[in-house]
Amino acid sequence: MIAEPIVEAHELSYTYPHPTVEALQRVTVAIAPGTFTAIIGPNGSGKTTFLRLMIGLLEPTSGTIQLMGRTPAETPDVVQRHVGYVPQYESINLRLPVRSRDIVEMGIAARAGDSMSGRQIMRRVEQALELVDLARVRDRRYSSLSGGQRQRVLLARALAVDPDILVLDEPFSGMDIVGQRSVAEFLARLVREKGLTVITVAHNVSTLVHFIDNVLLLNGELVAFGPPNEVLKPETLRRGYGAKVPIIVCEEGYPHPIMEDSHG
């Protein structure tokens, strides 16, 4: 029996109004539950827009998108209950004297309301920080952490609400290659062992190819969707990026595109 898609878009389009910018056009794609998907494409290709539509922060200009069979913008309670979200830019004032565990606790408290005791919340905080291997810095100020450690604290905050879907927008910013690989391996383990669905925007997919199930390549429209070996081909990447993208095939047979070191 084939599982119903956990995310399904049909002819999905979105245009930003002021100024008018057509971000996505007629994207049709279905993402299966319990899979790890990386969304790639050049700057301005609609990657973050797709995520925001998927979790109801934006409403389609035309077409549809469904999350767990519901329209996200119309059912924020579904998003609240089932999605853990790590945004690309987190507006946490680094001058505030907040600790790592405070950041995670705020995320849980916002979801739980009065349904969890203080002791239950703190236990969930500890578990989440342990998951991302940051229990040792739980009492350190968030502002004193490295960029990679801050990203992992935000990942812990998303995981602490025990989501079914983990959505991440450029989670590898500020991390070196070792840190990127460690987090990618950790996310793949969540998919494999806990059945989470992980969907992440990635500027450079090279670190992820050993761990992901699918690549969604966007450039204002759907260019390709499928396993890395099918999408990360020279002719497909040329269509997506408008230029030749060098590819190195590793000993295990995975294609590793060589991307410019920029973000957006």
Outline the structure in words.
The chain is of the alpha/beta class and 264 residues long. The chain has a single domain, classed as P-loop containing nucleotide triphosphate hydrolases (Rossmann fold). Helices cover 32% and strands 23% of the residues. The protein is built from 8 helices and 11 strands. The strands form 3 sheets. The chain has a 6-stranded mixed sheet with strand order 5-6-7-3-8-9, with helices on both faces. Strand 8 and strand 9 form a beta hairpin. Helix 3 packs across helix 4, helix 3 runs parallel beside helix 5 and helix 4 crosses helix 5. The longest helix is centred in the last third of the chain and has 18 residues. It is globular and about 55 Å long. It starts with 6 loop residues before the first strand and ends in a 7-residue tail after the last strand.
Give a short summary of the structure.
With 264 residues, the protein is an alpha/beta fold. The chain has eight helices and eleven strands.
